[in-house]
Amino acid sequence: MNYFISVALIAAGLFLIFYQRNKISDTVTEVQFLQTKTIDEVQKMFTTMDDMSMGENYREYVELKADVVSNCAVQTPYSQRDVAFYTSTLSQVSEISEQYKDKDGCMRTRTSKRENKISDAVSSQTIEVTDASSEKSVVVELMASGCDLDIPKTFDKFEPKNNMSRYNGFMSSYRNTAFGSETLGFKMTEKTIELGQKLYILGEAFREGDKIYIGKPQDSKKPFIVSTKSEEDLVNTHKKKAMMTLIGGIALCVLGVVLILTAIF
Known about the structure:
5-stranded mixed β-barrel, 4 helices, 37% strand
C-alpha cells in the first residue's frame, strides 16, 4: 500500500513540476510579452481583414487595458450596491458537537464550525469595455467557459440566523428548509467589478455582426484572463504561483522517495 501511495505522490509532484508550473510560466510569458492594443487598433484590424474578405472568420489573440462601460448597472444581492458585475455565495454556518475518547479513555466533547454552501449567484448582464482611443466598445465574454476571472472579494459578512429576516428576498427559496438548532447563521460573500473599473484582458478577439468580442481562444493552451489587477501585479502573482508549485512538486517527490526507501530498508 505504501508503494502505491509513494508512486502517487511522486506522480503528483512531477505533474506540478512539469505541467502545472510550465502552464503558469506560459501565462507569465503571454502577459509580459504580448503588446497591448487599443480598441481603435482592434477595430482597424478587423476593417483591414474586411478589405481582404476575411473579417467574419478572423480571430486574433490580444491584450487590452480598458474601462468597464455599463448601460445597465446591477445591484448586488447582499450589500445592495450598484456594480457592473458580481458573483455571490451564501453558506450555512453550523456548530457540530462530536464525542471522542481522550488518551486516558475518557469521553470528551468537542465542537467545530462547518460551512455548507447552499447557493451561488452570478449577474448575467453583458460587460463592455472602452478606452480613450475610440468611442466604440467591445464585449468581454466573462461567462465563457475557461475564463480566468480574477476579481476582488468586496463583501464578506456573517449574519446570525435570527437576523436573516432582512434578507427575505434572497432567503425565500429556503423558508421551508429546517436548518436545525445547530445552525448559527449564514455567511454571505460577493466579488464584484465596479462601474468604470479598469480591466486587464487577455483573450481572443472575434466579430459577430457589427460587434467585436473578446473570449476564450480556440487554442486551448492560451489563457483567457479578465482581471482587475494591473499587468505588473498579474505577472508577480503568477511568478509566485509558479515558485510555490515548483516547491510543492519537489516536496511531494521527496516525500514519495522517502516512503519508498523506508519500505525497502
